[in-house]
Every structure is written in structure tokens, then in C-alpha cells.
Amino acid sequence: MAKYVYDFTEGNRNLKDLLGGKGANLAEMTNLGLPVPHGFTITTEACRHYLAEGSVPSGLDQEVAEQLEALEAKMGRKLGQADDPLLVSVRSGAKFSMPGMMETVLNIGLNDESVHGLAKQSGGNDRFAWDSYRRLIQMFGKTVLDIDGDLFEHALDELKGRRQDTDLDSGELQQLVETYKGIVRDQTGKDFPADPREQMRLAVMAVFDSWNAPRAILYRRQERIPADLGTAVNIMAMVFGNYGNDSGTGVAFTRDPGSGQQGIYGDYLQNAQGEDVVAGIRNTIPLEDLEHLDKHSYDELVGIMETLENHYRDLCDIEFTIERGKLWMLQTRVGKRTAGAAFCIATQLADQGLITMDEAVTRVTGDQLAQLMFPRFDGGARKKKIAKGMNASPGAAVGKAVFSSERAVELAQQGQDVILVRRETNPDDLAGMIAARGILTSRGGKTSHAAVVARGMGKTCVCGAEELEVLTAEQRFVAPGDVVVSEGDVISIDGTTGEVFLGEVPVVDSAVVEYFEGATEPRDDLVKAVDRIMRHADEARRLGVRANADTPEDAARARRFGAQGIGLCRTEHMFLGERRQLVEDLVLASTDAERQTALDALEPLQKSDFIGIFQAMDGAPVTIRLIDPPLHEFLPDIVDLSVKIAAGKATDKDRKLLTAVKRLHEQNPMLGLRGVRLGLVIPGLFAMQVRAIAQAAAEVPGARPEIMIPLVAAVQELESVREEAARILAEAGVQALIGTMIEVPRAALTAGQIAEAAEFFSFGTNDLTQMAWGFSRDDVEAAFFSHYLDAGIFGVSPFETIDREGVGRLMEIAVREGREARPDLHLGICGEHGGDPDSVRFCHEIGLDYVSCSPFRIPVARLEAGRAALTQSDSDTR
Amino acid sequence: MAKYVYDFTEGNRNLKDLLGGKGANLAEMTNLGLPVPHGFTITTEACRHYLAEGSVPSGLDQEVAEQLEALEAKMGRKLGQADDPLLVSVRSGAKFSMPGMMETVLNIGLNDESVHGLAKQSGGNDRFAWDSYRRLIQMFGKTVLDIDGDLFEHALDELKGRRQDTDLDSGELQQLVETYKGIVRDQTGKDFPADPREQMRLAVMAVFDSWNAPRAILYRRQERIPADLGTAVNIMAMVFGNYGNDSGTGVAFTRDPGSGQQGIYGDYLQNAQGEDVVAGIRNTIPLEDLEHLDKHSYDELVGIMETLENHYRDLCDIEFTIERGKLWMLQTRVGKRTAGAAFCIATQLADQGLITMDEAVTRVTGDQLAQLMFPRFDGGARKKKIAKGMNASPGAAVGKAVFSSERAVELAQQGQDVILVRRETNPDDLAGMIAARGILTSRGGKTSHAAVVARGMGKTCVCGAEELEVLTAEQRFVAPGDVVVSEGDVISIDGTTGEVFLGEVPVVDSAVVEYFEGATEPRDDLVKAVDRIMRHADEARRLGVRANADTPEDAARARRFGAQGIGLCRTEHMFLGERRQLVEDLVLASTDAERQTALDALEPLQKSDFIGIFQAMDGAPVTIRLIDPPLHEFLPDIVDLSVKIAAGKATDKDRKLLTAVKRLHEQNPMLGLRGVRLGLVIPGLFAMQVRAIAQAAAEVPGARPEIMIPLVAAVQELESVREEAARILAEAGVQALIGTMIEVPRAALTAGQIAEAAEFFSFGTNDLTQMAWGFSRDDVEAAFFSHYLDAGIFGVSPFETIDREGVGRLMEIAVREGREARPDLHLGICGEHGGDPDSVRFCHEIGLDYVSCSPFRIPVARLEAGRAALTQSDSDTR
């Protein structure tokens, strides 16, 4: 028969699946000999059974009863015993920390009798006993009985008026207990349960049920936590931080989670229970001041912190309580930290010999590195912070506040920097969001429209700054302290922290970027840490990293950032500007000769473009994609032409162009005449480009072009253009791989055939995502992605991170069947996912040879490629 | 060691893979004891070796030499022997008949010496001998030495002037031989090879090489014949139909291939060799007249025809030669026939006991049935045929000739029927093609732009009528005999036969359609045959057949045509007409209440629509797809609105609508806010539809609604809407399956998950094809499909027939993984492919439960479903 209950002495930190994170760490600390109150954990397995069957597994009640008896024996008191009660806390604790779930009920075991026993136990501290009792009813009522917590808060506020809660005396608290019991009766139709075991039983089932609370379900969907894990329940003997001034409760970090500096960091609150710290009822004191209040406990705590850090080999965060001078550990876990701290801590731990450099690389993430690469506000500058919202899209933006999309566009066109401020955004605001330097909203979370669209644009965004009252019609917002910001007033927003500042805050470039740019030697600790980790990641990674770069300038920057080649050089920009006219000639050509004339004029221009890029890449491979977009994108706008004609200012060519624009108009240009289709339908177009590449390569020593055909869906398409390209290369005496994008689902599904004609594949995951899901990014990101993220349909936009089940499956099919057909097939990715941490890991896992991304994301890709090589699947490290 | 050469006595008709169709049938006839000239076949395996290695396999020369010796021994003469030569023919013969390949070289063995021996052999017929010699040089020159055939034709024409070729005497023919030898020397720089064995060796290799002639490659691509089969070569002792009037050559059919009537059908040409019949140099006589010329041979032929038909159990076509009163069989095969004949022959053969009814069903095709369902021109009417082109898209169309797209649109808007006549069409002609009743071109084949687009539209088209001179600028065309047709003159075109008639030809409805409509009892033989075959197919088939029908009228027709339910009832038409205004209200709603008001107004209208359809279907299942297209499709046109506003005639609502139209505008509506996305983003929309369905079902006894959610890409989308729908159904006390379209690649790739929330899948292969290939039908069919078909990239448009390798693979994945997750998952298809013969077979093969198609295609689907159940993969029956 399954064992459903574990005493803290029976578990360890490796049993998170069974005991949850909290239970496993309590067991670990118990076994380290640290002062943890006695207690036991009910397993996630019991929860799963309860959720599936609707009742607790047989045997559980018996096991709990036995464990409780053992606990009572250890403590020398019985649960809720009238004259000398044992009290316990009941806490949820799943494998992954889940804010959507019930957290804690303290003081279980109190009722109208045992409250007197508790008073006696505490040496006649009646106030303490009644305070504990009212806390029980309040927490139990809210989390177990599902009563609106405001009802209790309101009753407490009424009673205390303008006093602090410590000012309430025992009589008042006794009166509050009666009020609370009345609330319970009113709201549930039943009395507050006086039986301590019944209290405990109900609390355990409430924890189980909280696994399926709506907010918990939503959180799991968004974080992609499996729905069937269940939660454990921890039952622990109560210790009291609210006995008096020799007691208290606090949190501690083994290092500064902000900077990574070693030292004592934390907060302490005298004469309080844990939830008081969270509620912020009174001000905490810095942890180091505890040394003066209670040196014995302080020294013991410092020793324990060292033990824990050496044991966990990482920054730990700790919850503790001091009960009349005796220190108790209530929780520990590996602590969260800022991006900068993560790098510093990782290298420090390596220097201390606690971890290897391999491990150090896995202790930081690409997302953290990316955060360090955004410009940020000058830390030393004077800043007037007026609000804090969600850090929805990182970066630092400064501009004049505007309150409508139209106004944002207007001012931006005048060359002014603006911040678009809205209660919340909707698709109508798109133009304004594009025009603005940053976006600030007072409503909505990280999946709101503003957040989703801003991240998609890479634009700074703070959302859900609820302290702000945005008065759109009056074109102003009001911040706490009656700070009024009207249209035109300058504000600064920090998308990395969520802070909002009044006035212009100076922006400083990222020191990390300066380091990557090679402008500086590693100076400060952070840059030194980044440098060491990047070097180690580069040594470890198996994936190559290339850049998406279309110009010599981008190519040079990419090289500085560590790119080993260009994975995507788009050629369409080479048809813009003054060269549009040649494209117009091409489209209007009515004879082979006219068409060839237009192509002949383009060829030397393209050739010189390629020469510049080959020179910048200095012998590294350059994958050049032949022209992809539909030709009508290069023609004048239909409205402009019509107006010109109506105004009588049109030339003959304009009139012809209008006809061509109408003929080439497409309902769905994404699914139209583009890519290889253009190459097949317009004779000589691809040949011209290949000739320009071949001639440029012939002139630049060491040039290594790779020719990439876009939008291939069938091997026959590739065969047709490949033949001509190979002939042109041979004539020029130039060696170049010829390969294809895999960006259409059918290409992935027939990769075995396509590999017969392709020396390399490069996954175009932008289009592949659009076509696999059947939505175009332009059209749908603003229209419904925020709905989808809120409803948990996506955990993350599939345009940010590769959708493994759909798009990823197509990639896996293509990799497997492509390599079967051609074992030396070279495989890469050049969609924007190539710079996304999770996607880089996926590319490593399915065995690609390289990823290619925008120059700025190259360090992220290098780091993640290193991490991927150094770890197995990270599904267990969330 | 492989055996590369088979004597005709060694093979049989089952060895087509090895001996090709012609060789296998020659062997079969030989073994039946029929009078086939002696000969042997070189296998396709030898050809494959030659093509792969560039040289004939070792041992082949030796085997050929031995077989030739054996042949010489049987015939008592040696190849090219000067005084009494054996002559042979060399013919290609692949597994599948391929017009792109070299066909035949006759008279091999002749040279300046043996021509005299042949004259002697023929009893001093010098003319015959020299004629045979010049034919050898001409055929050999053209097909083996690759010389332009016109050079020989031109020399012949010069010599004979206005005489028939039989008027040339032996001296003139001898002179022609010298001229021909001169041409060979001029064109190749070498003399015509005099060595008979060298002639044979070169001819064999030329046959091998012809496998990879450009036209052969193109033909294989278009017909999807594997490229690696290779061809066999047949070498046969010559018999001569050109010895004189006691000789001749002919073709015969064992039944009338036009009607299926039993009897003697064929043509005979006295004193001629086979190619003369094909070339049409002189007029043939009806085969039955042979009885008067040579009763002995005639009777023998009639007996052989009966033998062959009984042996092959099908209509056979035959090539034969009579040499001085002796009948020889040169070829037989199962003969082509018209659609009507196919049905009649199949049932006749069943009545004769030659085949079973199961086999009879497999002897006809859905395409043939479809041909019989088009209206056709009255057979009895007086018709003036003025030209014949390719039968590019079937049907019968009558209208005034017009020569430009603009004019077609103009006259059509006036309510006139027009036929668009062009040299060839291009994407600019699209509007005119839509406006016209039919399309006629003088250039291009079945893959030309006109043909591809017309088939896509289901519009009658005759293309490549090369006898017509189309003078677009002068708005007229000229037909043979100086018939001039000017704009406005009425013409009639038959897309089933390719014929073009002057004036209006009366159109009669299809008798087969009248029978399906139930208007008539089977009367004539054809309808009786169709009736019997359809009944048998219905008994045999495992696939259900449903209809795509949106109205009670369509539903009723579908029932009459044999639909077992509705597989796709679109609901978007229910938002058109006067109801558009309600959709406008829905889009403009700015509060929940306004939105609900608009939805409440739509609900009773939808309900009454559904009642009508449930009544028409009388207890058969009705799959209703919730609204799919983007809402902007229901709003007024942006240009119309702008004009109205500019003209000062706009209402407030118009102004609001313009804003909404702009906001809802999409770059790629196909990939936009539609399908389930609408249902998730617009609260209450799907609920309104489901409520209307539930209430309608509650009012119609026996109604069997099935609710289908479109455009699902992720199970989470389906779960979200499914929950609400299930609740509404339960409240109304109505039972209904809830399922989803599989029309987005990701849905197929995650079908295992989606099946957890779907009781049925219906494959939307139109969208699935668009997204798997990455092209939108609207945009690309006209723009480049004809290029693609010509280049062999498609064998057939993937919108006509399911692309098995890409789209089909997605379907197979979805079927397999969907059924694994839910064994009783109900599976259908509702894309237009559901009525395409090859696609129906594919649906049978992958195990769907039903196909759904337009009412008119239902009989085709029923027949093809029966055929699929009665046969294995048809890859061998091409």
C-alpha cells in the first residue's frame, strides 16, 4: 500500500515530486539537524487520488492520525488540548511554487476552550492567545471556508480605528473573535468548527481543492505546469513570533539578491506572525539589527545561513521565527535574484569551489543576459518615482506623455519622443504604439494587449500601474500624492523594473553591450562575470551561432558580437530606394528584352552589395536568401497613384504602373506570388541574383556564399532553380552550397525528397509558425493574442518561443528525414526564434548545426547554446 | 545473371513491369496461338541499367545476338541479308503508354544491297522495296538520329508535287533515297549506317535514350509516372502492308468505343504501312468493308477479336497488318472508350458472365460519371462545327463571342451570355473569365492558364483550338474555310469534346442527372447501366457520403442525389442580405448590452434557418459549422463608405462603420481573426449560434445536429468553446456531437490532443492545402499554377486532388493519432476534395468514415467509394 504521509525526518530535497518543494526542503533542513519544528507532509499522491476520485485514499486518515499522535508524543501535548494545546500550521506546497493556490492556515487547534490553555501556556498572555484565535478564524474563514477576506479586515479596521493592531487589548480581541464567528455563521450558515481534528481535516482538503482553483489553473496554463501534479500538504507544530518582544519573524537571504554581494540581507519584525510581514502592517527592521535585539538567535541564524548555502550551493532564501529567544526555521528554498546578481553569484560560487564553471553557466539564463543588454536609467541620477507597474517589456524609454493613438502619431511625425499612456490598449491603438518610444497602462497584466504587442515590437512597456488614474478625455493622469501629468509632460518608464518616473531620467547604455562591442575591457564585477561565463559557454556549446544581417554594418556588428557567419542575408532591401525604379521597369517589361534590360541594370548594384558583406564577414559563411517578397511590395501605393492620375499629374508610366499594381494585388500576399514562385515565374530574376553573388564572391578572397531558396514547398521547385544556379556558379568558378528555407509545412513534411536537392536547410520559423497555426503575425498578434494568453490557450506567443508540439514537430520530421536522405545535410534556423532562449535549447535538442538571429541576440544565443550543451532537458528545473 | 531478352513465347501479360505493355501483350497473343510475327523483347531492366550506367549491361549484346539468330533461323533469312533480307521493326514499349517517347522504326535491315533482295523477295516489286528503304531512312533519321522530320517531309513534297505518294514510281523513290541519305550526311556529318546490326543497335539505344527525352520527362511528371521505370524494346520480324492491294493495315475495336455497342469497329487502309494510317495521307475504309476485299482475313480477324475480348474480358483495340492475304497481329491492348460506353460495356460484360458486378464497378470511374452529368449539346441538333481544340474543362456553353475581359464584364452585367475568346489568357483576364459562360483559346494545352483557371471555376473551356486565328485587336477570329466570327456573333463550345460550333446549339440536360434527380425511371441503356452500377457501388462502399449544403433546397437535392447527411452546413450565408445590418450592429457594439441586443436579434433568424434544414434532412445527421469568415467580410466596402462620406451623404453609423472597417482591415484575411478565434474574442457569438441550433433541433423531431468548430489549431481553443456549447445543449435537452474541422496544419499535428475534446474531425482540405503549401487559392491559381503544371511541379493542382505526400500525410497523422486518443472518433472530409475521385479513394485508404461534397458531386463520390472498397491501390491500373 502506498505511503501517503512522511515525517520531516523521512524525506529529503530530492523528493519534490512527492513532498512538494516546501515539504522536501523542510525534510532536508530537519536532516541537516537545523531547528525545524516537528511535523509531517501529506504527499502529492494523496492529493492526486483525492482530485481524481473525489475522496481521500483509504488509509490516509489512519496514517495522518498516527503521525499526529507521534507529533503529539514528541511535543508532549495533544492537538487542541484544552489546558495545554498543541497548535499546528497547515500549508500547501506543490512541486512548483504556485501563487494561485491556498498558502497557509496557522494556529489550528484553537477553540473557545483551548484558547485559555494557550493563554496559560504562554504564562498568562491572554492578549496573545485571543490574537492567535482571531487569526485562526480569519485565515480559516478566508482560505478554507472561502469567505471574502474583506469582511474580516473591515471588522478589524472598525475595531481598531486609527490604532495599530498591537494596541488592541485582550478584551477587544475576544470581542473580535465573537464578531468573526458571527461572520462565519452569516456567510456559511454553520458555526466555526470547534473540533481541532475537524479543523485540520477541513484545512487539508481545502489545500487539495485549491489545486483546481481558477487562478491556479490559469497560472499553470500560463507557466505550462502540468495539470495533474497535485499539491502536498505540510502540517507543522506552531511556533509563535507573536509572544512578545522576545519573539518575532523574518526573512533572510544568504546573499544580496539585488547585486549578488555576500552578506546578511533580510527583514525582521518583532512580535509578529509570518503574515504580518507580508501584509506590511508595521515596518520591518533590517536583519542585521537583530544582532542587537537577540545576539544568540542572530549568531545561530548566520551560522545556519552558511550551512544552507554550502549545502544547497546557491543563494537561499529563508523564513524563520524566534519564539521567546529560540530560533526556528520555517522554510528555505533557492532564492530568486536579479539578472546581474545571477551572473555574479554564479562566478563567486565557482570561485569558492562550491560549483564548477559548467554549473555556473547553467545558473544564468539567456533572458537574464538579455535584460543586462537593454539600456537602463542612470542609477546615480535623481529620479522621482511616481508609480510602479508590471515590467511588461524591458528597456528604458523617455518621452512626452500622450493619451491617444492619433496624438502619438502626430507628435512622432514632428520628431518628438512620446510615451503612449492609456488605461489599457486595444487594436485601435496599434499605430500609436508603433509611433511611441514606450507604452504605459494602468490596467492589465503581462498578458494584456499592451504587453503582448509591445513585446512583439521589442518596445518598452510598463503595464498595470494601478496607482495611476488615467483620465483619457482630460488628457492627463494622476499619480499618488496628487501628481498630475498632462499631455506634453515628460515621463520616463523602466520596462525592466516596471517603474514610472516624472521628468527625463538620463539613459545609460548597457556596460555589457559595451563589452560585447569590444569598446571596453571587462571592468566591473558584473562585466567580468559575464565575460567568464560567455567564454565558458562558447567552449561548451555544440551549436554554431550566426547572424541575420543584410548590410556590411550589421555584418560587422554581428562579428563583434561573436557571430560565426551570416545565417540570413535578405536581398529585398537591395531593391529599395532609388532601385525601385528598376523593379518598376522589371514589372512593366512586356518583352524578354525589356525584362533583361531591367535585370542587367540591377545586377551590378547587387554585386557591390554582396562584395561589402563578404568583406565584412572576412571568410565566414554568408547565407544569402534570394528575393522573397511579392513584387507589388516594391511598387507605388495604389491610392497615391490614383490620386496622381486624378490630379492630372501622371506620366504614361504611372498609368501603366496602376494597371500593374491592380493586376498584382493579392488578397493574401503572405500566401501569394513570392519566394521561389517568383523565381520560377519571372525568367532571369534568380539568375541575375546568383550571377551577382558569384561575381562578388570571385572578387573577394575567401568569400563563402551559400545560396538559399525561399518558400520551397516541393522538391520540384528547388530542382528547377537549383539547376540554373549551379550552372551559373560553375561558369564563374565559384563554390557555394545551394539550399533552401524550410518555412512551409509541406517542405517539412517532404523534407526527405527536398534534401535530395538541398545541401542545407534553414528553418524559417516565422512563416512556419504562421502557416502551421494559420495566422499571420501582422493580423492576429494585436487582435487576439492577449485574449489567448489570458485564457491560457498559449503559455507564450508561438512567435516568441517555438511551439514544440506543432511547429517543433514539423522541424523534427524535417531534421530526421532530411538527414536520412542526406547524412551531411547542414541544418540551421533563421527565424526570430533563433535568438529565443527556449527555442535555442530546442534547436540543440533536435540536433541543428547552428542558430541564426539578429546581431543583438547573438550573445543570448551563445549562452543558451552553452547551457543546452551542459544540461539535460530543463523540465525539472523550473 | 539477369535475363535481359525474352522471346515472345516466353512472356505474358502479367510481365508489364519487365516487358512493357506492348511486349507483354505481344507475348500474351503469341501464347494464345494468334498470328503474331516472331520477335523478342529487351527488358526494362536492361534500359534501367543503361540509363544508370551509361552503357548496356554486359551480356545484353550476346543475348540479343542469340535471340536474333533464333529469329533468323525461324524466318529462314538473315537480318539485312543481301539477296533475301530479314527486316525487323524496333519499337519502344514502357509499362505505361507514353506519347513523349520514340515509338517505332520499321524496315531495319535495308541498305543499298538488301533493297534489291527485298525487291526480289517481293516478286520483283521494285517500287515497294525502294519505298520501304526511304521510309527506313526517314524514320531512323528522325527518331534515332534526331534530325528534323520536316526536312524529309519537305523533300517528299517537292518530289511528288500534287500527286499522291502512291503515284511515285520506283525510280523517283530511288532518287528520294539518295536525297534522304544526303540529308542524313548534312545533318549528322556521317553516312546513314548501312550495317543492319548497327542499325538495330543504334535503334535500341535510341529507344533507351528516349526515356529521358524532355517531352517524356514532362509527360511523366504530369501523369505522375515514376521516373525510374525505363522502357522495354520490342524487335519483331517485319510484315508488309504495302506489298500491293492484297496487303494493308488497320486498327480494330472489339466494341464501339463511342457507345459500347457490340459489333465490328475500325478502319483499314489498303497497300500501306502503319504510320500511313496515323498520318492520314489517304482515306481509310470502314473495317466491315474488308469483308468484301479479303473475306478470309476478315473472318479470321473477327474470330481473333472475339478470342481477345473473351480473354481480356474487356474492349480491346488492335493493330493488324495483312501481307499478301495473310493476317498478322501487331499489337493489342485494353481500349480507351467514352464515358457512356464505359458504363454500357461494363454492364454488358457482366451480363455475358465475363466479369462480376464487382468488377463492373471498377471498370468505370468517377470522372466518367461526372462527364455524363454535364449538360451537353443536343445530339440531334444541326451543328456547324468550325474547329476542335482541347477539352480543357467539361460542359456546354453558348454565348456571344467577346475578345477582351472588359467587354466580357460589360456585356455580362447587361445580362448577356458571353464566350471569352482569346489567343491565350493571363491573370489580367480573370474578371472576364468569371463573367463569361465559357472560355475559348487558340493556344495552350490542358495546363495552360485558361484551362487551369476554368477547371478551378468549374467553367466550360476549350483551349488550344489551333485552327482558329484570333485577331484580338480587330475583335474577331477566323476559322478554317474563312469563317469569320466577330464580336457579338453567337458561338457554342463543348468543353467535354473540345468542339467549337457556329451559332447557338440547343443544350440538353443530362439524362443521368434527371435519373439522379428521381425525375425519370431508367429508360435508355446508358441510364440503366448507370443505375445498376450505382446500386452495386452503394452496396460495396464502406465510406459514407454526405453533402455540403447550406440551404433547405440544397439539402433536399443532396438527399435526392443519395447524400446520407450533411457534412458541412456553412452558417455565414445566414449573416448576409438584410441581416448584414445586425452584423454591423454587432461590430459597432461598444457595450455588452449592445452586443447582446444584436446577437438576440440574429438568434431567431438562425433558428428558422436550421429548422428548414433539419426538416429537409429528415433525421439524417447535419454537421453545422459555426461562423468562420472574418467579420469585415460582412461590412460595407471601404471605398463605397469613403465615397458616401465624401459626398456628404453619410450617416453617423456610416462614419462609425468606416472606423470599424479600418480597424478590422487585415493584411491576410485568410490568416486573420476568423473561425474559433472569433468565437473566443466575441463573447456570445458562438453561444447564440449553438442556442439557435439547440432550439431548432428541439422543434424538429429526429433532428441530428453535429456542431463543428472551425479553424482550431490547439486543443485549448476547442475546450474553451466546447464547454459553453455543451452546457447550452444540455439546457435545451438536445443531444449533439461536438467536433472540429482539421484545416490548420497544427491541428493535424496535435490531433491526439484535440481528439480528447472532439467527438468528430472533419478535414477542411481547402484550407489545409492552402496552409500546408503556403499559397492562397485566390491569389495563386491564376498567377502561377499553369507555369507549375507546365514545368511538371504539379501533376495536378493540389486543390483538385489531395496532395498525398504533404496534405495527405497530415491527414494520416491526424487519423492515426486521433483514433489512438479516441477510438470511436468519427472522421470525415468536407473540403472540395470530397468529390474528387482520387481523393475519395485516398479517404477510403486512410480509413475515414465519410466524405462530404457538393450535391452535384455526390454520385461521383458514391461510385468512387464503391470502387475504392472493391479494389486495392490503383497504382497498377493506370
From TrEMBL, chains A, B:
Entry cofactors: Mg(2+)
Keyword presence, rRNA-binding: no
Positions contributing to substrate binding: R570, R625, E743, G764, T765, N766, D767
Keyword Magnesium: yes
Residues the entry annotates as binding Mg(2+): E743, D767
Gene Ontology molecular function: any one: kinase activity
Record domain PEP-utilising enzyme C-terminal: where: 530-866
Active site per database record: H449 (tele-phosphohistidine intermediate), C830 (proton donor)
Catalysed reactions, as listed in the record: pyruvate + phosphate + ATP = phosphoenolpyruvate + AMP + diphosphate + H(+)
Recorded superkingdom: Bacteria
EC number(s) per entry: 2.7.9.1
Start and end residues of each Pyruvate phosphate dikinase AMP/ATP-binding domain: 60-283, 291-339
Residue stretches making up the PEP-utilising enzyme mobile domain: 416-498
InterPro entries, alphabetized: ATP_grasp_subdomain_1, PEP-util_enz_mobile_dom, PEP_util_AS, PEP_util_C, Phosphohistidine_dom_sf, PPDK_AMP/ATP-bd, Pyruvate_phosphate_dikinase, Pyrv/PenolPyrv_kinase-like_dom
Keywords of the record: ATP-binding, Kinase, Magnesium, Metal-binding, Nucleotide-binding, Pyruvate, Transferase
Stated family: Belongs to the PEP-utilizing enzyme family.
Protein's recorded name: Pyruvate, phosphate dikinase
Protein species of origin: Nonomuraea thailandensis
Lineage: Bacteria, Bacillati, Actinomycetota, Actinomycetes, Streptosporangiales
